[in-house]
């Protein structure tokens, strides 16, 4: 019996354990931290051996194959030791893909991947396709492969998940954009991070497709210097394309098969330039899967968007409150500020992954009337913006940040939570931060 060891007892780890057991492996789950009650119950119900608050090295090094959580860096001693011993270390995505013949639409990028994933899934579901959504969102891919019979999957893939693939392939890959993010995991080398994103196309063949942002410098440079077998399907807001998607006179024009689609950008339910790009990418994926134009149009008109991504929470005394907690890097916050069409009180801060706030200066100068800091260390934010914004206040939690913003904002203005940082100093994760923000707004 082959031994499967899983490092990390979260969503992806427990999903891989369920699939591994179903496929006849001897499964062992090991988590250095505590495994949450929800996942512990699943492991116990499935009679899967596990340990928590510890990694028993002898037991782990006994494995034939190791599936590791995307959160564990490749550089930790245990992973290095496994590789020295010739034990294969893969991601849950790689493990699960071996057991499904479904058509996979894989979506990666620094920003926009959740929205593009949800939108693509929404269009395909409306078209009547048998389709699951997984990867970085929803139930784990492995668990769905074990328990569902989907003919198609839309997968949101992080660079960490892609780092752990060998044979995994997406029939349709989407690369939304590449901007510096998570550089702490890539030795602060942007090129290593770019290479990691492009692993999405490493196993593609001439029968597969790579949909990408043709306005993105990092993507274009990689494509100039490297080869992919896939058919390239570009989208652009800046230039007209003979093949792909572009904008002309406020219309999206998509020309990838005999059937050209025209759609006014004003009809899109999601606003902002970045969302126009997300819509182009999702539409082309749907078209490649032969979805009718009418279904695509209707889906783009009534799609609601992702929670914690430019989510309108409420209007209180004429002030709009917007939750963009999912903005954990500069580029995501850039998009959010770009979408603001009123004076804005901006709530920002948290754990900074090497941010350069200077890129935001022009937008902040134009749109932000006050900054409310939400993090333990706000020096960098204060130093960058002190000459541009008169009011900068420090707060110690979501409730206080909302109360202060409420005092600063006037009728017709917007309070925007778009932190540009990770959330781990004051919150469990960006969802927790977003929920606390929404709760505080609703109790004003």
Automatic annotation (TrEMBL):
Entry similarity comment: Belongs to the MurCDEF family.
One biological process term in Gene Ontology: cell division
Reactions listed under catalytic activity: UDP-N-acetyl-alpha-D-muramoyl-L-alanine + D-glutamate + ATP = UDP-N-acetyl-alpha-D-muramoyl-L-alanyl-D-glutamate + ADP + phosphate + H(+)
Recorded coiled-coil stretches: none
Mur ligase C-terminal domain residues: 308-421
Lineage, top ranks: Bacteria, Pseudomonadati, Bacteroidota, Flavobacteriia, Flavobacteriales
Organism of this sequence: Polaribacter pectinis
One GO CC term on file: cytoplasm
Enzyme class: ligase
EC number: 6.3.2.9
Sequence ranges assigned to domain Mur ligase central in this UniProt record: 107-286
Binding site for ATP: 109-115
SUPFAM superfamilies: MurCD N-terminal domain (SSF51984), MurD-like peptide ligases, catalytic domain (SSF53623), MurD-like peptide ligases, peptide-binding domain (SSF53244)
Protein purpose: Cell wall formation. Catalyzes the addition of glutamate to the nucleotide precursor UDP-N-acetylmuramoyl-L-alanine (UMA).
Pfam family, one: MurD_N
Protein name: UDP-N-acetylmuramoylalanine--D-glutamate ligase
Pathway as given in its UniProt record: Cell wall biogenesis; peptidoglycan biosynthesis
